[in-house]
Amino acid sequence: MNDSLPFWVAVAAGMIRCATPVLLATVGECITERSGVLNLGLEGTMLAGALSAVVVSYYTHSVVLAIAIAMLVGAIIGLLHACICIKFQANQVASGIAMTILLSGITAFFGADFVGKPIQSVVAIKLPFLCDIPLIGPILFNQDPLVYLCYLIVPLTYWLINHTRFGLSLRAVGEEPRAAAAAGIQVRRVRYISTMLGAALAALGGAYLSLVYAQGWIENITAGRGWVAVGLVVFAAWNPWRALIGAYLFGLAVSLQLRLQAAGCEVSPYLLGMLPYLLVISVMAGSSIIGRKKAESVPTALGVSYAEQA
Amino acid sequence: MYGRQVVKSIRATQRALISIAGSLVSILCGLIAVGLFLVVAGRDPIRIYSGIFTSAFGDGFALSETLVAATPVMFCALGVAVAARVGLMNIGVEGQLLAGAVGSTFIALTLPATMPPWVMLSLMAVTACVCGAIWSAIPALLKVRLNVNETIVSLLLNYVAVLVVEFLIHGPWQDPTTSSWPQTQAFPASAELLHLPGSRIHLGFFIAVVIGLVLSLVLTRTKVGFRANVIGQNPEAAKYAHYRVNRYLIIALLVSGAVAALAGFSQVSAIEGRLRSGLSPGYGYTGFLVAWLARQNPLAIIVTAVLLGGFLSGADSLQLSEKLPFATVNILQGAIFLFLLASETSLKNLAFKLQLRMATNAEPDGLALLPAAGASEVNS
Amino acid sequence: MSVESATRAKTIEAGSVQACSLSFRSVSKRFGQILANDSVSFDVIGGGIHAIVGENGAGKSTLSKILYGYYKSDAGSINLDGHQIVLNSPFDARKLGIGMVHQQLALVSSLSGFENVVLGDPKLSFAFSKTKIEKQVQSKAREFGFKLDLSCPVSHLGIADRQKLEMFKLIWRDARVLILDEPTSQLTPFEAEELLSIARDLAESGRIVILITHHINEVINFARHITVLRQGRSISTVEASSVTSDALARLMIDIDMDSFLPIEGRAQSIAEPLINLKSVSTKATATSHPLHDISFGVRPAEIVGVAGISGSGQLEFGRLLAGLLEPSAGGISGSIINQGSEISRALALSVCYIPSEQNHACAPALSVAANCFLKSIDSLPVHTSTLWKLLNSVFINSAHMERHARAIIDAFSITPNLSDVPAAALSGGNLQRLIIGRELSTKTSVIVADNPCAGLDAAMSMRIRYELRKAALEGRAVILISPDLEELLTTCDRIVAMFNGRICGEQIAGQFDYQSLAACMGGKS
To answer: Does C415 touch chain B (CB under 8 A)?
Structure first.
């Protein structure tokens, strides 16, 4: 926003804003996939979260309510996806794609009335002492409250997965559901919860897109960020901290190409626009090359329907 | 001996009927669900559905428009089916369609307009196939060499393909005569695919049907098709039987991309006459659904593509007459797809149980020891 | 060994529980047409291991699953401490203090040992400190004499340690009744003894320990009471000290053994080896164990046994011989490999392979006929005209496929005898018959069979061994890989033992020594 800032500082600050929606979706999908469920409906979930936030914000002028409703909508979508995949044992990839087709249709249908409508804006808050840290202060700590929430969600997720009983059950269910069931864990319940939680986070990311980033509803506002998130989960090796790195890389690519366009760069905006997607593909390929040497960290039961015996 | 044959045919028919019933029920449930949605949204579903039906199948003109819309859908669905046979999910048909369109456009704009049509069109088709195969080769190689998920890569490449088209029509290939409108200049007459006199139905439709028939033959009756089937059902068993699994995976994706690219070729050559923005309103995704509804069976795809092509064409007409947002198509497709997926596993189990019961009743010799399905763990 | 056992017994006494009693009354369970348990009645007597023995298919596993709540019995009751218990699910069983060590180990291999122990433990708090919990688990394990590394991922532990971990998990959850379902099937003889003596100590400290097995000598040496099941019925309950292994075997198996007597051993063949491995090694990968410096040859008309338990490299050895594994060092030669041809191609043509994992050898969703045809695609019916030859090279002759399948179905009595049902409709035993029939009918010069009789009943197992000996008599070479030393001793002309990816011992029929082979398998020689 500040044209007086040096180019790279602007890029970096923009990077965080661009990365946040994707980071939220990626962290959410990390939780979901850790339990063995593939949720490719993130693209649709983010759209739904974005539209819900705009609608609520338009009518109630409350940002907090908008975010809460968006997350609730996300959780419901997650419940639906989990139901189809777990109760009906459908192919998880196809279910996610079908969900996205459905939601992109629904959001386009209702969103048409909300294009260009004014919503409550979210202001940036300068954190008092942290903002004065040289170099990284203005980048990291002059952001809106949702970004600060995001800073907390990553370590919180890491703690949840590794230091709680729920996290232990989560990891067991994603690796060997039969062993987990034999130990007395309710495999289905854990998967339902993790899917709903992941979808709620993705919807929160969508809400960020519409409330803060674009400040309004545009059709197809996510432009593939949901797929990017699923791709980044592979790069992140299902670890929230690495998800942070991956999301910020993506954010950097988006922010950089936007600033370059604004600075009058000669390259066609369409070519520049390809960079983030190509980056994610390369990053997925790269992590496969590196990951081959180490033991597989893929949750063993990922994407496989669990049929309970007797 | 003949008795056995008859019974076998009955079992095969039963399997087919259950699949068809499942798809029809899913479509019905989808229509009902979306009908309720429309009611909630303040629209009249009966009016809308009958409007779509009339615009799709009402008269000769409607039918011809349906077949026109069905053509790219059929190509994409066949592409999806080829990949699905070896167990790969190619959702990148949308991008491969665009890649094919780009390739055809290149030939149409570069070669002299005086070339004989059949040379021009053949080159356009071949180039389209090559471009589509290249576009699908990327996820194919990444999958086989590095075990990267082919679904995500193809999806991202769809977005990249859209951007490539935008780049070309805003940049190097922009039509200088209509500089405000992003599109290429019109193709020469020799680049136009043959039409049935008096309608927009073109040769592409028949090419798609022929490809469907050929694929059906290859997949069910040839050794190549047999091996592909085994690879798709159980890659471990295929490796055990010394099949060249990787080779099949890559070739399947290349063929898949080439077939989908022909959709792009037929659209720019026969319908649009140029490359423009928004060339595909989601033909690839519709094709994906069609392939699933038709259980990846090329013959069923031909029929199902016409059905869904009708939806597309009908909904398109209703955009103007009823002010129905085109997004409704996506809602309907998504709902049908979800119902189909929800019913798949229970239908498979039902078919299995019925077949088993039929088998035990039909052949009284030596079946006293047959255990119920699910008791296979009772082995110690 | 005895000092350790005495110390353990003392510490176990310190953690001993109040004795309890368990009895089965007329328990019956039917699956469709099969009566798995037929009015089973007996008392489980504490103070020592109570073994339930029977051959595969006798109903032991079903009974244990009923006790643990996986199934509900159709009739009859189970009484614990005099009260009838109702078990709707394993949850109820666990609440009553009944625990089970499954045949397929129920551990999550990527988690650490202590994490597996506390997995699903209702007493665990929502947020926990890893180090604190690990210390608690470690101290209780030491108290009971379990010497295990609880901090490394379970995937790094050997099978024997994993078995012990599963048993300790039951102790952690304060189980009073421990069901051990075929715990020694994947252990070397020495590891099996160690595990069973731990189980015996636990039984002597007041817990009820039910051992389910079909190994007679284990039961004679370690159990105090034995209940014999045969074809779903409880035949009798005896004291281990008062019965001989022959008597027990006769109680367990009721068929005429003479019709399947092994064919007499033959003199060593002096023909050139069909396959000759010279110092072959393979690399370790995420899913397979490495082989080191294997030198091995097999001649026509001989049966070679490969004795090795899970993880000894026996699986990889079979795959290597079948042409499915690339060696990283050393050379493969032999009379079946022509000069200049690719080795894996030559092996693919001349070696048929029956893998230990059924899922690797068939596609359950495809029809029986398709599964029979899996490797025979290129086999052609004889035709003279070139047109037919061309068509046959591209298209599949469905009549030919049907004939092929019918031949296998009839020769091996596969039930149901239908060629168009999906292979998933066949029971495990029938599917195994299909695979074996398909492979044997290929008439290759070498047969590699990896644990072909696993999970099959005695009659079927004998039939299979008979078929393998018949194949050897016809001039084919047979390599039989099995963790069951007794099976090998009665079937093979020559046995090599494997441990840790190496061949560590070889013996010829007539000079077989069980003890030294067992020691080789366990790595002690």
So the answer is: yes
